[in-house]
Design a protein that fits this description.
Elements lengths: L1 H18 L6 H6 L4 E7 L1 H6 L6 E8 L2 E9 L3 H5 L5 E5 L1 H6 L7 E5 L6 H20 L7 E10 L5 E9 L2 H8 L2 E2 L14 H11 L12 E5 L5 E5 L39 H9 L1 H10 L5 H19 L6
Helix pairs in contact: 10-11
């Protein structure tokens, strides 16, 4: 028995480099199921005590009977300091993924509710909706996300609680899909080097997000193709007007409220908005229907978001944006 187990592990180790990017990922597995539930076992007391450190702790994720070892890192800046449960990075052990028939994409950001009340759950749902709206606008150059119901088991005292969590696909998966690499030092690039600068700026304005910078690559992944051109992929929308969280803080000096829209354009060249604006206008009905169909959110929240987006489309039709 021990010998056969040893040879199985050896076979898995030899196959790892070949299987790393083949087959479905853990994210793919999760995304096939609406209302997906998982369990995370960790020493929550230790996690919270080390929220301001780079310390790594061990945990276990249980998915329909499949036990996966995981390194857990606290991440983020503002939320790691202030939230009841800080956002975390789950870095799964690769061998069990391969044994489960999955590929070895194993780094997943988990967005957690900042407050332990109904408003915190509402904010997570809204942020997931923003990611999904951007995927409607650009299905390829966008992060895939999936809403999970997570039961956290605190191994320190045996307590547990259940909450929504938003899992974001591994950036390596995004790179594979775009056949591009994540450029980590592409700062202060001219607008001509981008494939989608106007689209990203218009979307950020639509959802009321000023918490990003193209020139500094803040809250954007800059994916670089072989020809050197960059495609910006936005993420981290928790301070945007659509989410409008109770814990939010104003980002831009022109904002008086979280829902105030600010046009952010950091290039010397003027934006060429006609094509992007036309594409957004064509998607108005689809985007509003997408909000209406997002039933995890309450009726009141969906109505509020639709009113907010309709204001954007009115300004778009009147050529009041980016002028």
């Amino acid at each position: 028995m021990l010998r056969s187990t040893f040879f199985l592990i050896l076979l898995v180790m030899c196959a790892l480099p070949l299987s790393a990017k083949k087959g479905e990922s853990l994210f793919d597995r999760w995304s096939r199921t609406e209302g997906k539930s998982i369990d995370i076992y960790l020493n929550l007391d230790t996690l919270l005590a080390n929220r301001n450190t780079t310390n790594v702790m061990r945990g276990t994720v249980v998915d329909s009977g499949l036990h996966l070892g995981v390194d857990i890192h606290v991440r983020g800046r503002f939320r790691r300091r202030t939230c009841a449960l800080p956002p975390i990075l789950l870095q799964f052990d690769k061998d069990p993924l391969v044994l489960a028939g999955l590929n070895t994409h194993n780094d997943y950001k988990l967005v957690t509710p900042c407050t332990d009340d109904a408003a915190g759950q509402d904010a997570i749902l809204r942020e997931n909706l923003v990611y999904e709206l951007y995927r409607t606008i650009d299905p390829e150059a966008s992060y895939r996300t999936h809403l999970l119901t997570i039961t956290y088991h605190n191994t320190a005292d045996g307590s547990s609680f259940t909450s929504y969590g938003l899992v974001i696909e591994d950036t390596d998966e995004l790179e594979d899909r775009l056949e591009a690499s994540n450029c980590e030092d592409c700062y202060n690039q001219p607008v001509a080097n981008y494939t989608n600068a106007e689209t990203v700026a218009l979307f950020q304005y639509m959802v009321g997000n000023a918490d990003y910078s193209t020139s500094l690559a803040r809250n954007l992944k800059l994916m670089q193709a072989e020809d050197g051109r960059l495609t910006a992929v936005p993420y981290d929308f928790d301070f945007c007007g659509v989410v409008n969280p109770t814990y939010g803080r104003l980002i831009h000096p022109e904002q008086d409220n979280m829902t105030d829209r600010v046009w952010v354009w950091e290039f010397q060249a003027l934006p060429q908005l006609d094509q992007a604006a036309s594409e957004f206008a064509l998607l108005e009905d689809e985007l509003l229907a997408q909000v209406e169909a997002y039933t995890p959110l309450s009726y009141d929240s969906r109505r509020e978001i639709k009113v907010y987006l309709k204001d954007f489309f009115r300004d778009l039709k009147r050529n009041r944006i980016g002028r």
